[in-house]
Amino acid sequence: MSTIIEINHLKKSFGDNEVLKDIQTTVNKGEVLTIIGSSGSGKSTLLRCINLLEKPTSGEILYNGENVLQKGYNLSTYRTKLGMVFQSFNLFNNLNVLENCTTGQITVLKRHPEEAKKIALENLDKVGLKEFQSAKPSQLSGGQKQRVAIARALSMNPDVMLFDEPTSALDPETVGEVLKTMKDLAQTGLTMVIVTHEMDFARDVSDRVIFMDKGVIAEEGAPEDIFVHPKEERTKAFLSRILEP
Protein backbone atom coordinates (compact mmCIF):
# COMPACT_ATOMS: atom_id res chain seq x y z
CA MET A 1 0.00 0.00 0.00
CA SER A 2 1.26 3.48 -0.80
CA THR A 3 1.01 6.21 1.83
CA ILE A 4 -1.45 9.00 1.07
CA ILE A 5 -1.25 10.91 4.39
CA GLU A 6 1.73 10.97 6.73
CA ILE A 7 1.57 12.64 10.14
CA ASN A 8 4.85 13.62 11.81
CA HIS A 9 5.29 14.94 15.38
CA LEU A 10 1.81 16.49 15.35
CA LYS A 11 0.84 18.52 18.40
CA LYS A 12 -2.30 20.48 19.18
CA SER A 13 -2.92 22.65 22.24
CA PHE A 14 -5.95 24.67 23.29
CA GLY A 15 -4.38 27.25 25.57
CA ASP A 16 -2.42 25.31 28.23
CA ASN A 17 -4.24 22.06 27.43
CA GLU A 18 -2.11 19.87 25.14
CA VAL A 19 -4.68 17.61 23.46
CA LEU A 20 -2.37 15.92 20.93
CA LYS A 21 1.19 15.04 21.96
CA ASP A 22 3.69 14.13 19.25
CA ILE A 23 1.40 12.03 17.03
CA GLN A 24 3.11 9.95 14.35
CA THR A 25 1.17 7.73 11.95
CA THR A 26 0.21 7.19 8.32
CA VAL A 27 -2.91 6.60 6.25
CA ASN A 28 -2.38 4.25 3.33
CA LYS A 29 -4.27 4.28 0.04
CA GLY A 30 -7.22 1.87 0.14
CA GLU A 31 -6.90 1.34 3.91
CA VAL A 32 -9.62 1.46 6.55
CA LEU A 33 -7.99 3.00 9.62
CA THR A 34 -10.07 3.13 12.80
CA ILE A 35 -9.27 5.30 15.81
CA ILE A 36 -10.64 4.22 19.19
CA GLY A 37 -10.22 5.48 22.75
CA SER A 38 -12.06 7.10 25.63
CA SER A 39 -13.82 10.45 25.31
CA GLY A 40 -11.21 13.19 25.60
CA SER A 41 -8.36 11.02 24.31
CA GLY A 42 -7.82 13.28 21.27
CA LYS A 43 -9.45 11.11 18.56
CA SER A 44 -11.75 13.74 17.07
CA THR A 45 -9.13 16.48 17.42
CA LEU A 46 -6.71 14.35 15.38
CA LEU A 47 -9.35 13.92 12.67
CA ARG A 48 -10.11 17.66 12.67
CA CYS A 49 -6.39 18.43 12.38
CA ILE A 50 -6.06 16.10 9.38
CA ASN A 51 -8.64 18.10 7.43
CA LEU A 52 -7.49 21.38 9.05
CA LEU A 53 -10.76 22.25 10.75
CA GLU A 54 -8.30 22.66 13.63
CA LYS A 55 -4.85 24.11 12.93
CA PRO A 56 -2.10 21.99 14.51
CA THR A 57 0.20 23.76 16.97
CA SER A 58 3.24 22.10 15.40
CA GLY A 59 4.29 19.14 13.27
CA GLU A 60 3.69 18.05 9.69
CA ILE A 61 0.82 16.61 7.68
CA LEU A 62 2.07 15.27 4.37
CA TYR A 63 -0.48 14.62 1.60
CA ASN A 64 1.09 12.66 -1.27
CA GLY A 65 4.48 13.70 0.10
CA GLU A 66 3.80 17.45 0.41
CA ASN A 67 3.46 19.25 3.74
CA VAL A 68 0.01 20.86 3.70
CA LEU A 69 1.01 23.13 6.61
CA GLN A 70 3.81 24.81 4.68
CA LYS A 71 3.36 28.42 3.62
CA GLY A 72 1.76 28.81 0.19
CA TYR A 73 0.22 25.33 0.05
CA ASN A 74 -3.19 25.32 -1.67
CA LEU A 75 -5.41 24.38 1.27
CA SER A 76 -8.71 24.71 -0.58
CA THR A 77 -7.62 22.05 -3.10
CA TYR A 78 -6.42 19.80 -0.26
CA ARG A 79 -9.76 20.10 1.54
CA THR A 80 -11.66 18.98 -1.57
CA LYS A 81 -9.63 15.74 -1.46
CA LEU A 82 -11.00 14.89 2.00
CA GLY A 83 -14.65 13.98 2.57
CA MET A 84 -15.89 14.59 6.12
CA VAL A 85 -18.90 12.99 7.81
CA PHE A 86 -19.75 14.62 11.14
CA GLN A 87 -21.63 13.39 14.21
CA SER A 88 -24.48 15.83 13.58
CA PHE A 89 -25.03 15.42 9.79
CA ASN A 90 -24.57 19.16 8.95
CA LEU A 91 -27.12 19.01 6.12
CA PHE A 92 -28.68 22.17 4.68
CA ASN A 93 -32.25 22.02 6.03
CA ASN A 94 -33.59 24.43 3.38
CA LEU A 95 -32.40 22.17 0.53
CA ASN A 96 -33.75 18.78 -0.47
CA VAL A 97 -31.66 15.61 -0.43
CA LEU A 98 -30.53 15.91 -4.06
CA GLU A 99 -29.63 19.60 -3.68
CA ASN A 100 -27.59 18.78 -0.55
CA CYS A 101 -25.54 16.40 -2.71
CA THR A 102 -25.11 18.72 -5.72
CA THR A 103 -24.46 22.17 -4.21
CA GLY A 104 -20.84 21.48 -3.21
CA GLN A 105 -20.08 19.88 -6.57
CA ILE A 106 -21.43 22.89 -8.47
CA THR A 107 -20.00 25.67 -6.28
CA VAL A 108 -16.64 24.15 -5.26
CA LEU A 109 -15.76 21.72 -8.06
CA LYS A 110 -17.51 23.85 -10.76
CA ARG A 111 -19.30 20.83 -12.18
CA HIS A 112 -22.16 21.28 -14.63
CA PRO A 113 -25.50 20.85 -12.78
CA GLU A 114 -26.49 17.83 -14.90
CA GLU A 115 -23.19 16.08 -14.20
CA ALA A 116 -23.51 16.92 -10.50
CA LYS A 117 -27.04 15.49 -10.45
CA LYS A 118 -25.91 12.25 -12.15
CA ILE A 119 -23.07 11.77 -9.63
CA ALA A 120 -25.34 12.63 -6.68
CA LEU A 121 -27.99 10.11 -7.75
CA GLU A 122 -25.36 7.39 -8.16
CA ASN A 123 -24.17 8.01 -4.61
CA LEU A 124 -27.68 8.26 -3.17
CA ASP A 125 -28.36 4.91 -4.80
CA LYS A 126 -25.21 3.50 -3.11
CA VAL A 127 -26.55 4.48 0.31
CA GLY A 128 -30.10 3.30 -0.49
CA LEU A 129 -31.78 6.72 -0.60
CA LYS A 130 -32.26 7.51 -4.29
CA GLU A 131 -36.04 7.49 -3.89
CA PHE A 132 -35.74 10.20 -1.18
CA GLN A 133 -34.01 12.69 -3.51
CA SER A 134 -36.86 15.24 -3.25
CA ALA A 135 -37.29 14.96 0.54
CA LYS A 136 -36.16 17.65 2.95
CA PRO A 137 -33.86 16.65 5.84
CA SER A 138 -36.71 17.30 8.30
CA GLN A 139 -38.61 14.38 6.71
CA LEU A 140 -35.77 11.89 7.30
CA SER A 141 -34.73 9.76 10.27
CA GLY A 142 -31.31 10.31 11.84
CA GLY A 143 -29.90 7.28 10.07
CA GLN A 144 -31.21 8.50 6.73
CA LYS A 145 -29.73 11.97 7.31
CA GLN A 146 -26.35 10.44 8.04
CA ARG A 147 -26.52 8.33 4.87
CA VAL A 148 -27.32 11.49 2.89
CA ALA A 149 -24.27 13.12 4.50
CA ILE A 150 -22.17 10.14 3.34
CA ALA A 151 -23.57 10.41 -0.20
CA ARG A 152 -22.85 14.15 -0.21
CA ALA A 153 -19.23 13.58 0.82
CA LEU A 154 -18.79 10.80 -1.76
CA SER A 155 -20.16 13.07 -4.49
CA MET A 156 -17.09 15.29 -4.14
CA ASN A 157 -14.93 12.28 -5.21
CA PRO A 158 -12.57 12.52 -2.23
CA ASP A 159 -9.30 10.59 -1.98
CA VAL A 160 -9.93 9.99 1.73
CA MET A 161 -13.17 9.81 3.72
CA LEU A 162 -13.06 10.93 7.37
CA PHE A 163 -15.82 9.83 9.75
CA ASP A 164 -16.10 11.52 13.16
CA GLU A 165 -18.21 9.21 15.36
CA PRO A 166 -20.89 9.01 12.64
CA THR A 167 -23.31 6.94 14.75
CA SER A 168 -23.03 8.72 18.11
CA ALA A 169 -26.05 11.00 17.52
CA LEU A 170 -28.30 8.19 16.24
CA ASP A 171 -31.04 6.13 17.83
CA PRO A 172 -29.90 2.52 18.43
CA GLU A 173 -32.25 1.17 15.76
CA THR A 174 -30.70 3.38 13.02
CA VAL A 175 -27.04 2.76 13.91
CA GLY A 176 -26.98 -0.52 11.98
CA GLU A 177 -28.04 1.01 8.65
CA VAL A 178 -25.21 3.57 8.79
CA LEU A 179 -22.62 0.96 9.79
CA LYS A 180 -23.78 -1.29 6.94
CA THR A 181 -23.36 1.60 4.48
CA MET A 182 -19.83 2.20 5.78
CA LYS A 183 -18.97 -1.53 5.56
CA ASP A 184 -20.16 -1.57 1.95
CA LEU A 185 -17.94 1.45 1.19
CA ALA A 186 -14.94 -0.19 2.86
CA GLN A 187 -15.30 -3.13 0.49
CA THR A 188 -14.97 -0.82 -2.54
CA GLY A 189 -11.37 0.05 -1.64
CA LEU A 190 -12.15 3.60 -0.48
CA THR A 191 -9.55 5.07 1.89
CA MET A 192 -11.32 5.68 5.21
CA VAL A 193 -10.32 7.08 8.61
CA ILE A 194 -13.01 6.40 11.21
CA VAL A 195 -13.32 7.62 14.79
CA THR A 196 -15.85 5.34 16.47
CA HIS A 197 -17.10 3.80 19.73
CA GLU A 198 -18.53 0.83 17.81
CA MET A 199 -15.97 -1.84 18.73
CA ASP A 200 -17.54 -4.78 16.84
CA PHE A 201 -17.66 -2.63 13.71
CA ALA A 202 -14.05 -1.52 14.18
CA ARG A 203 -12.92 -5.11 14.58
CA ASP A 204 -14.84 -6.26 11.47
CA VAL A 205 -14.06 -3.47 9.02
CA SER A 206 -10.58 -2.16 9.87
CA ASP A 207 -7.25 -2.93 8.25
CA ARG A 208 -5.54 -1.17 11.16
CA VAL A 209 -6.68 0.17 14.53
CA ILE A 210 -5.18 3.02 16.56
CA PHE A 211 -5.90 3.21 20.29
CA MET A 212 -5.47 6.73 21.68
CA ASP A 213 -5.13 7.64 25.33
CA LYS A 214 -4.51 11.10 26.82
CA GLY A 215 -3.37 12.62 23.55
CA VAL A 216 -0.95 9.92 22.43
CA ILE A 217 -1.14 6.81 20.28
CA ALA A 218 -0.81 4.18 22.98
CA GLU A 219 -0.98 1.21 20.61
CA GLU A 220 -1.70 0.45 16.96
CA GLY A 221 -1.93 -2.67 14.88
CA ALA A 222 -4.21 -5.08 13.07
CA PRO A 223 -7.68 -5.58 14.64
CA GLU A 224 -6.60 -8.99 15.93
CA ASP A 225 -3.58 -7.42 17.68
CA ILE A 226 -5.61 -4.68 19.36
CA PHE A 227 -8.85 -6.49 20.25
CA VAL A 228 -7.57 -10.01 20.95
CA HIS A 229 -3.90 -9.61 21.90
CA PRO A 230 -3.38 -6.04 23.16
CA LYS A 231 0.08 -5.42 24.58
CA GLU A 232 -0.43 -2.20 26.54
CA GLU A 233 -2.12 -2.26 29.95
CA ARG A 234 -4.12 0.85 29.15
CA THR A 235 -5.46 -0.77 25.96
CA LYS A 236 -6.50 -3.82 27.98
CA ALA A 237 -8.16 -1.61 30.61
CA PHE A 238 -10.08 0.37 27.97
CA LEU A 239 -11.31 -2.73 26.16
CA SER A 240 -12.36 -4.47 29.37
CA ARG A 241 -14.48 -1.41 30.28
CA ILE A 242 -16.03 -1.18 26.80
CA LEU A 243 -16.47 -4.83 25.87
CA GLU A 244 -17.52 -6.40 29.16
CA PRO A 245 -21.14 -5.72 30.22
Automatic annotation (TrEMBL):
Topology relative to the membrane: Peripheral membrane protein
UniProt keyword list: Amino-acid transport, ATP-binding, Cell membrane, Membrane, Nucleotide-binding, Transport
PROSITE patterns: ABC_TRANSPORTER_1, ABC_TRANSPORTER_2
Family matches, as CDD domains: ABC_HisP_GlnQ
GO CC entries: plasma membrane
Annotated InterPro entries: AAA+_ATPase (IPR003593), ABC_ATPase_HisP-typ (IPR030679), ABC_transporter-like_ATP-bd (IPR003439), ABC_transporter-like_CS (IPR017871), MetN_ABC_transporter-like (IPR050086), P-loop_NTPase (IPR027417)
Keyword Membrane among UniProt keywords: yes
Transmembrane segments: none
Residue stretches making up the ABC transporter domain: 5-239
Gene Ontology MF terms: ABC-type amino acid transporter activity; ATP binding; ATP hydrolysis activity
Keyword Transport (UniProt): yes
Protein's cellular compartments: Cell membrane
Domain of life: Bacteria
Major subcellular location class: membrane
Family designation: Belongs to the ABC transporter superfamily.
Protein name: Amino acid ABC transporter ATP-binding protein
